[in-house]
Amino acid sequence: MKIMVDFEECLKDSPRFRATIEEVEGDVCELESKLDKLVKLCIGMIDAGKAYNAANKQFVNGIRELAQQSTKDEVIESSLTKFAESLQEMINYHTILFDQAQRSIKTQLQLFVKDDIRKFKDAKKHFDKVSEEKEAALIKNAQAPRNKQHEVEEATNILTATRKCFRHIVLDYVLQINVLQSKRRSEILKSMLSFMYAHLTFFHQGYDLFSELQPLMKHLGGQLDQLVVDAAKEKRDMEQKHSTIQQKDFSNDDTKLEYNVDADNGIAMEGYLFKRASNAFKTWNRRWFSIQNNQLVYQKKFKDNPTVVVEDLRLCTVKHCEDIERRFCFEVVSPTKSCMMQADSEKLRQAWIKAVQNSIATAFRDKGEDAEKLDRKSSTSTGSLDSGGETKERSLKGETALQRVLVIPGNSCCCDCGQPDPRWASINLGITLCIQCSGIHRSLGVHFSKVRSLTLDTWEPELLKLMCELGNKVINQIYEARREELGARKPNPGDPRHEVEAYIKAKYVDRRFVQRPTDDQLRSKVVSLSKQEKRLSSSSDHMPRAPPPTPKLRPGSNSSGQTVKSADSGIQNSSDESREMPPQAPSASNNSLGEAGRDASHGAQAPVLGGADTPPMAMPSTLPPPSPCKDVSFYEPKEYSPGLQLFWASCARSLPDMAEALAHGGEVNWVNTDDEKRTPLIMAVHGGSLVTCEFLLQNGSSVNQQDAQGRGPLHHATMLGHTGQVCLFLKRGANQNAADIDEKTPLSIAVDAANADIVTLLRLAKMNEEMREAEGPYSQSGDETYQDIFQDFSHMASNDPEKLNRYQAYDHQKP
């Protein structure tokens, strides 16, 4: 607020003038305080900005160093260099902004405080002093006695002089006040406006800079999808090559060394040997030897220049050495010296001796004639690494997954835009997608869609079966039920990305096209599913029980992780699509139960897992098979909800009804308070279906949520003897140490039921967890044996459930 003082009023020195002066003085004091605070804050901001710029410069230098390190990759080097230049330019703009802030805020406002407000304070001191003098003169004049003329004259003269001085000082003070009040507005606004213009310039410069950079950024963004695909393909190829090589028999590594005179690098043979030193101590050192250019040389490190042992093999001979204490020794003798060497095995010694002899013979032969002979000879040896295994593995893993999924109705085209020949999938929805729609699904977040490649990723058997249970046709009947009614157009291949993205968000995030059921429809659906569950239970109760299999060794695995038939296991290759359903599987008319009957992976006689001193666990064969959901009864609920539909659909093994319940807003971890607080995942366990459990877990179901008895899904799967489900839950991080209200853990339940399979899985998982904890927080997934065994059980549970058909019921074991 601008306060001006009237000059006429100040001469009267009225109370109104004094009140105005007091108000002005208070306002100026507060103004000085606020300006001092603003200047200090500005100084702090500038200091922080300078520190930010210094840190930012170090970051940009780091980008430059990374670009220099990536000189072999032109795209990364040029892009990072351009980004570093742009960021450096932004640092320069920041520096200019902070300099302008120092000039406009700090310097200008400090000058205003030091000059104008200080002048005001000085004028105030003079005014206060002369005011006191005037007050004293008035008092003295009033007190002068009438009869003392000289005192009266003196008091009158002093009062006159004081009043004259007061008028002069007070006019100057009022002038200073009015000038300050007028100037404060312009100084503050001028300072802040200059600062804001500096910001405007800064952001304009930044916008112009990044506008120039935008085409490059868009170009790189366009390349990223392909780069991601290429990187995933390279990773996949490396994993396949790693798997192929890892599964080769390396028990006889000493047979891998072969002499090849026509090797591309000119090295006919190379490998590690121990060499005896020629000094007095005769020490033995391990060195990397090679035969190249008719010379025998060795190296200690790769960067070291090779040390020549024999300059010309034509002038030397090689012989066995049996007269020294060390084994597998041989000696290369030349006219000037001899070299004693030691191989790691007898086969390696023979290979090296033969290689030296062949080199000697080759050196004397005609080069052209012998080249053809050696080429024919080495063709068989150098071709020992068969690449057919890798191709076969790729076929078993990637192509089979693609072929199996694409034959499902509607899966041959993208679920959302209709693009033919899709190569991606959403595993929690069970649909196939083109590359553009897969990118949009990935941007939705994993709580809506989990994207995986049908050709580049490894597919677990239970996940592959889940994809085969659903498909584009089933899901579109749910998520596009009202699309035509609402007049929404489905995207076509080649439509702009933003249109496809809007449609996908409306379909899966907003669920705009889902047909919401009425209360009567929902009630009818729930009652139908509960009756369907009872029919399954009834048919299961009357099924003949299969005889238990005899204990066998753990089945082997081929290169793709598929279970293969071995001489002592009798397990068929799981990639066979035409295998028979087990005779005890219940029949159902519903499509969704086609695979469910085959994945009811109940407890089985355990393969003997462990060392030679680990005795096989005995398995009782007199227990009756449990019925699916046999201890679950249908109660008339307080209200019907999508969660209740999911609850009964999980028990009835109906994946389409489960997907429909989730689309209608059913909570995946819904709790049935009328049924001991059981969840859909627990009901899926009682339903006996591995695929329904996998579907719920992919859609965010908690693997450790307990019921009113304190039992989680792992407890229930153990009690029912569902080995495949136990394996699945352990892979998904189920807590096997959790105890129910009876203080029973899954392990104690399995031990009481004498279920060797489940006991073995639980103990292996516990050992693996302890190993990871012992190795530290950065350990990998664990022991390879653990991984192999769990992989075998997963394949049997999904592809050969008849191998796990020994039923175990915990309640029959309880005393």
UniProtKB/TrEMBL annotation:
Keywords: ANK repeat, Cell membrane, Coiled coil, Endosome, GTPase activation, Membrane, Metal-binding, Repeat, Zinc, Zinc-finger. GAP activity stimulated by phosphatidylinositol 4,5-bisphosphate (PIP2) and phosphatidic acid. Residues 399-521 form the Arf-GAP domain. GO terms for molecular function: GTPase activator activity; zinc ion binding. ANK repeats lie at residues 676-708, 709-741. It is found in: Cell membrane; Endosome membrane. Pfam families: Ank_2, ArfGap, BAR_3, PH. Residues 266-361 form the PH domain. It is a peripheral membrane protein. Residues 800-815 have a biased composition (Basic and acidic residues). Residues 379-388 have a biased composition (Low complexity). Residues 556-575 have a biased composition (Polar residues). It comes from the Eukaryota. Residues 371-395, 515-625, 796-815 are annotated as: Disordered. PROSITE patterns: ANK_REP_REGION (PS50297), ANK_REPEAT (PS50088), ARFGAP (PS50115), PH_DOMAIN (PS50003). The keyword Transmembrane helix does not apply. This is Arf-GAP with coiled-coil, ANK repeat and PH domain-containing protein. It comes from Knipowitschia caucasica (Caucasian dwarf goby).
